[in-house]
Design goal:
Layout (H helix, E strand, L loop, with lengths): L7 E4 L15 H6 L1 H7 L3 E4 L27 H13 L3 E6 L3 E3 L3 H7 L3 H4 L4 E3 L19 E4 L4 E4 L6 E3 L5 H16 L4 E4 L20 H4 L5 H11 L8 E5 L5 H8 L8 E3 L21 H17 L5 E2 L9 H4 L7 H13 L4 E5 L20 H12 L4 H11 L36 H6 L4 H14 L1 H5 L1 E5 L6 E8 L2 E8 L5 E4 L7 E5 L5 E3 L2 E4 L4 E6 L1
Helix pairs in contact: 12-16, 13-14
């Protein structure tokens, strides 16, 4: 099965669409919008976790892998969703959180009761009368990565929140339990998995302090990771020829991602990597702001394109997800040139080789939330860092400015369906406040305007199906040192495609040899400025040229 001409749409159910007039979205809300997604043209929906959960990390703290969180509906609702999506040629992809479970999970509860079998499902270490954690590793959400349990006189590892206990993949019994979970959903007709921070599951044999970092070098892309993924593949999704998988790879390397996604390795279909989304981190610190480094952004995206292709690896392409700020607010201009820059960012990504992922609201140009009060934030990471940044001496105003740029809540605000109450998301006050701009930016308005961002995405999705060069052509760097244009070439047999994207407001002229031989495949301006062999790119202009 070829998935290379397909596009995936990511849904964060809590914020997608509510049908019960509660504070949060639900599975019936997804069913209600399937025709909208069919109109857009996507073939897969990736749902972030819909399992029972205390929701300390919005569902990534799973308390039961094979049930539905009552907040989202019932198993019957889920079955109807699969059936209704299939009728529209859309397949379902579920989020699998196999690095950790919620501490509410029955396995962890039994471990707390002293059952040795279940303690071995997790990573417990004896206190040894030292009253200091086994290592100095830092949790991804701040603080030490070990939590002490007084009744057991042991510590357990949590690379994320302390309510998310890391699983022990060294234990073959635990691995068998994981296979059962994956097979349960495959038998229900699920056709894809997104595997959460999957490259962290292989922990070191020896636990030691990290004297030069936060500990991640000891557990990222660990020594047994490829063995574990091959076994997972062989025992679950590898038995099907129509299931796609994508691994979320935290702090990974290009070399590992080539191996994870090379079909002959029989691990995963593709990988998410995040290096390109750290180009605005000052000193590699998410909470220190700087303007994004454009040349670094280009170089990272291009290097991953070239090297993955050359070595038979395969990229998942994305700007946005539930953990990232909105791309139009980050790399574009969400005020004066929101329309142009959102389309330009879409072209930049969708003309590359790989499977594009669209995150809910991206297709209508939703922006960052820009909340002006900490009370409006919900995300555990943001609330932790609000306190951390304040303790470092930053003012409330400075701290809120950083959260405005960096908080994961920026992408988790309710989808803006229309200009009615709460943007048409729900009649009740949503769990997270709607962005104030929903009267201007909403799906209903987009569907009425043929020049909207929505129809631009629809065209990009269709072009990937119509032109094999987009899904299978080679990728060549072009204008790689240009300070404001991200350009690249694609080639397949005698066909050639040139994608030109202006990331800034200034007008730029580019010379293209034999320009008259190219047709315009897609552009975000109605008319184009061509003169002999010169292309003039206006503010945030994007042009894709094609010749047979």
């Amino acid at each position: 099965m070829s998935f290379k001409d397909k596009v995936v749409y990511q849904i964060y159910p809590k914020s997608f669409n509510c049908t019960t007039n509660k504070t949060h979205g639900d599975l019936n809300g997804v069913i209600e919008k399937l025709d909208y997604l069919k109109e857009l043209g996507v073939e897969y929906i990736w749902l972030t976790p819909i399992y029972p959960s205390p929701m300390n990390d919005n569902g990534y703290d799973v308390a039961d892998y094979t049930n539905i969180n009552p907040d989202f509906g019932t198993m019957e609702d889920f079955d109807i969703l699969v059936e209704e999506a299939n009728k529209r040629g859309i397949k379902l992809m579920l989020d699998m959180v196999f690095n950790h479970t919620s501490t509410d999970h029955i396995w962890f509860q039994k471990a707390l009761q002293g059952e040795k079998k279940y303690q071995d499902y997790y990573i417990f270490k004896d206190n040894n009368n030292s009253n200091t954690p086994p290592t100095n590793w830092t949790s991804k959400f701040g603080g030490n990565a070990w939590e002490y349990i007084e009744t057991l006189d042991k510590y357990y590892l949590h690379l994320f929140d302390k309510t998310q206990a890391d699983l022990n993949w060294e234990n073959p019994e635990l691995r068998e339990e994981i296979y059962k979970v994956a097979n349960f959903w495959l038998e229900k007709g699920v056709k894809g998995f997104r595997l959460d921070v999957i490259n962290l599951i292989s922990k070191p044999e020896k636990y030691e302090d990290d004297l030069i970092g936060d500990g991640r070098r000891f557990y990222t892309d660990g020594t047994k990771i490829h063995q574990y993924l091959k076994e997972l593949n062989e025992n679950t999704f590898g038995r099907y020829n129509d299931v796609i998988t994508v691994g979320e790879m935290s702090s990974t390397t290009l070399e590992n991602c080539i191996k994870y996604s090379d079909p002959k390795e029989k691990e995963l279909s593709m990988t998410f990597s995040f290096h390109h989304l750290k180009v605005d981190y000052k000193d590699n610190d998410k909470w220190s702001l700087k303007d994004f480094d454009f040349l670094e952004l280009k170089d990272l995206l291009s290097t991953w394109q070239v090297e993955m292709d050359k070595n038979n690896g395969y990229n998942a392409l994305f700007w946005c997800n539930h953990d990232q700020p909105r791309a139009v607010s980050r790399f574009g201009n969400d005020k004066k040139y929101r329309l142009e820059s959102a389309k330009m960012l879409a072209s930049t990504l969708h003309m590359m080789k790989g499977t594009p992922y669209i995150y809910q609201g991206e297709e209508i140009g939703m922006t960052n939330a820009k909340y002006d009060n900490i009370e409006l934030y919900s995300d555990v990471e943001s609330l932790n860092y609000y306190e951390i940044l304040k303790s470092q001496g930053k003012t409330t105003e400075e701290t809120l400015h950083i959260l405005n740029q960096r908080s994961r809540d920026n992408s988790r605000t309710p989808v803006q369906w229309n200009d009615g109450l709460n943007g048409g998301f729900s009649e009740a006050k949503p769990w997270l406040s709607c962005i104030k701009n929903y009267k201007e930016i909403n799906a209903e308005k987009s569907l009425k305007d043929k020049n909207s961002i929505f129809y631009y995405y629809k065209k990009l999705i269709q072009l990937r199906k119509d032109y094999e060069i987009i899904s299978n052509g080679s990728f060549d760097r072009f204008l790689e040192n240009h300070k404001s244009i991200f350009g690249y070439k694609r080639k397949l047999n005698t066909e050639e495609l040139i994608c030109l994207n202006n990331f800034y407001e200034e007008e730029i002229e580019i010379e293209i040899e034999e320009l008259e031989k190219y047709d315009i495949l897609i552009s975000n301006y109605k008319n184009t400025n061509f003169k002999q062999n010169i292309v003039k790119l206006r503010a945030y202009e994007s042009i894709t040229l094609y010749k047979k």
